[in-house]
TrEMBL record:
Lineage: Bacteria, Pseudomonadati, Pseudomonadota, Alphaproteobacteria, Rhodospirillales
Protein name: Flagellar FliJ protein
InterPro entries membership: Flag_assembly_chemotaxis_eff, Flagell_FliJ
GO cellular component, one term: plasma membrane
GO biological process: bacterial-type flagellum organization; bacterial-type flagellum-dependent cell motility; chemotaxis; protein transport
Family the UniProt entry places it in: Belongs to the FliJ family.
Alphabetical keyword list: Bacterial flagellum biogenesis, Bacterial flagellum protein export, Cell membrane, Cell projection, Chemotaxis, Cilium, Coiled coil, Flagellum, Membrane, Protein transport, Transport
Superkingdom in the source lineage: Bacteria
Regions that span the bilayer: none
Record membrane topology: Peripheral membrane protein
Residue ranges the record marks as coiled coil: 71-105
Length: 145
């Protein structure tokens, strides 16, 4: 059954594609985490600068609503990304299970083929042995008469 090998190859490609997609999502999550850390470092620097003068304190106070919006946007993006990662992990697990199912079916088919071949070889060897035995009996039987 060549079709099982084709299906296995197709599912391996699908699993590889889903792995690549999951890796990309995780890399995007790492980048988003880095952006969040950089943003927080920038906010902290601005906060420290706001203590140096009244003008800086006023500017920082005006900047606070933007900080909250930016934090919320980053958090929402992260939550959506975590949902996408979770879905991608589930898709990968399902694709891997399908691949394993086909691989096990192929292994079972090969095992049955080998068992059938061994059975046919045993029958052929039994037939050869039976014919040899008959010939030996005929040769031995004709020599006695």
């Amino acid at each position: 059954m060549k079709s099982l090998k084709t299906l296995i190859r197709l599912h391996k490609n699908e699993v590889d594609e889903k792995r690549r997609h999951l890796t990309q999502l995780r890399e995007h999550d790492d980048q988003l985490t880095l952006r969040r850390q950089q943003f927080e470092a920038q906010v902290e620097m601005e906060r420290q600068l706001s203590g140096t003068s009244v003008d800086m304190a006023v500017a920082f106070a005006n900047f606070l609503p933007q900080i909250k919006l930016q934090r919320n946007a980053l958090e929402q993006a992260r939550q959506q990304l975590l949902i996408a990662i979770h879905r991608a992990e589930e898709d990968l697990a399902q694709a891997f299970q399908e691949l394993k199912r086909f691989e096990l079916a192929e292994e079972e088919r090969i095992r049955k083929e080998k068992a059938e071949l061994a059975r046919k070889e045993a029958m052929m060897l039994d037939e050869i042995a039976a014919q040899r035995h008959l010939r030996q009996q005929e040769e031995g039987g004709t020599g006695e008469e």
